[in-house]
Amino acid sequence: MPIRLELDAIDMKILRELQNDGRMTNVELAERVGISAPPCLRRVRKLEESGIIRGYRALLNAPALGYDLVAFCMVGLKHQSDANLKAFAKQTANWPLVREAWMVSGESDFLLQCVAENLAGFQDFVIEELTATENVDTVRTMLTIRQVKDVSLIEI
């Protein structure tokens, strides 16, 4: 479980800067937030160890790589016991098309964001894997038309 940290203004500046450019050097980060490099590095390490900074990654352009279809699946299970919910959540890790999976409340139990090369690939996944999964009762799919906002940053 992540450690809860008391964050000060410098920590918040560090988080803002790293969200905008996670590849900058520690020296550049320290200059931007107004402290010297050694304490900046200690603060970043503390933010990483506490789990506030979960990691670093490159953001890829999926269509440029041939992944043109983004769809969402709302999945309802036949039984919503704790064991069944955990089993389905664990199963999502085995599906490469599923990029994000959320347990939700309301009409469905899970919301899956899927990215596929094309409609046929997505349909194969839905028919052959998702609906064939034990305890899956309903699957409603939504194909996206166009992404109109993409902000994966946390406003701090």
- The overall pLDDT, averaged over residues, is 94
**Strand order of the biggest β-sheet:** 2-3-1-4
If helices are DSSP runs of H or I spanning 4 or more residues, what is the number of helices? 5
> How much is the radius of gyration in Å?
20 Å
Task: Compute the number of strand runs.
Answer: 4
- Beta content comes to 15-25%
Features:
four-stranded antiparallel sheet
Give an overview of the whole structure:
- The chain is an alpha+beta fold and 156 residues long.
- It is built from 5 helices and 4 strands.
- It has helices spanning 9-20, 26-33, 37-49, 82-91, 119-130; strands at residues 69-77, 98-103, 110-116, 136-143.
- Strands 2-3-1-4 form a 4-stranded antiparallel β-sheet.
- A hairpin with a 6-residue loop joins strand 2 (98-103) and strand 3 (110-116).
- The longest helix has 13 residues, at 37-49.
- The protein is elongated.
